[in-house]
């Protein structure tokens, strides 16, 4: 990721990032945080590569996971399979 600052007066610039972190904090992160940085790193990777991309339905993707939406896109677009 590349850090960016919102344009002055435009609250929508960081909306996807804010939504991701809200979801992480409310759906995954332990209520009382982590014991150490290594535990946090492992859990963040599990959330991003495991749950968020593989399982979690995203409303933007018609309630499909990003991996499933991408699979459908490639099957339809590149392979001509529905």
From TrEMBL:
Coiled-coil region: none
Integrase catalytic domain residues: 2-66
GO biological process annotation, one example: DNA integration
Entries under Pfam families matching the protein: rve_3
Name under which the protein is recorded: Putative transposase
Lineage per the UniProt record: Bacteria, Pseudomonadati, Pseudomonadota, Gammaproteobacteria, Moraxellales
């Amino acid at each position: 990721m590349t850090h960016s600052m919102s344009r002055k007066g435009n609250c929508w610039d960081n909306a996807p990032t804010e939504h991701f972190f809200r979801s992480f904090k409310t759906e995954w992160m332990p209520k009382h945080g982590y014991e150490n940085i290594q535990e946090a790193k492992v859990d963040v990777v599990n959330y991003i590569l495991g749950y968020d991309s593989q399982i979690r339905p995203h409303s933007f993707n018609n309630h499909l996971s990003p991996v499933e939406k991408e699979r459908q896109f490639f099957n339809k677009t590149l392979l001509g399979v529905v």
